[in-house]
Amino acid sequence: MDFLDAAYHILQSAGEPLHYSEITRRALDLGILKTNGQTPEATMGSRLYVDTKSPDSRFQRVGRGTFALAAPVQHPVVRQIDELNQTVRDQLHQRLQTMPPDRFEALIGELLIALGFAEDTINVTRYQKDGGIDVRGVLKVGAIAEVKVAVQVKRWKQNVQAPIVQALRGALAAGEQGVIITTSDFTADAKREAQAPARTRISLVNGEQLIDLFQHQLGVKTETYTTLSLDEEWWDAIANLNSQPLSPLPNSQPSSPSPQSLPFRQPRGSVASKLIEAAERAIREGRINTQTKIATGHTRYLVNHEPRHKNGRDFFAPVRLSNGLYLETHTSNKQADDQVRLLNTWPANRNRW
Hints:
elongated; 38% helix; alpha+beta; 5-stranded mixed sheet
């Protein structure tokens, strides 16, 4: 590997930012970086620094001499979905803002029911423009508790101020929890007043939070579409694109045939790593011994004493485990998750296979 590929491999495995000297040390220890230079740390730092100047760099600087993998570029489809959802949120806010005040108060009553308030406890007071309590209801938490709530709604464009909070607190009956819901927002003074110590706290719901509640409860439909994307890791493995073998596992015992002598490229990445980790854990715990065979179907082995499947075909990406067994690591991300669960619970689930 060159310096940048080695750095990418190390940072991907580490899962956290590292100083370029630490990246170099780990790459040299694993044997994935070959260099004849006398100052590999300086070369690594220079290559990374220059590369981060490129707009399509795989790396980003996060501190003096410290680098991390660049954040993945958002897929155009995801960006379009976010833009569409924001448009719907804006439309929803406009609808709420232009509703007649009495209908808005009734709508809040419907929202409370959708949120789990007992329908027979919801009482929307007659609209009188009096600035008092608009909706009352009770939220029942099974047989554990009942929360009595008094709500004042403000379909305003200007921010709600502290006197409104004070007035609602003074109108609460004994044992009631006060809530103010507005299509706008609250001033800093109103927020401080709502949380004032030694006083009944008032919950505040602003316009953005109100839209969050509606989009999961009322008046908004959720539409689901399926998009396809390539499993790059799977295709890399099947095309033998990864030419660098895995570093030997600790305490591994060389024997013939070794993985290096097999006509396969050794896998790298998260799929292989999590399979190897689960298998080695099972070995350490005594759940897998040298006689163990684990099948994942009628023709495939996951673990076998030789790198062969039941139908006689060779393992595509074999790894020799510390007890001499072979582990097939050629699989997809989803299948790997199932296989890790199989290894983690072996032999309790052996009858399933």
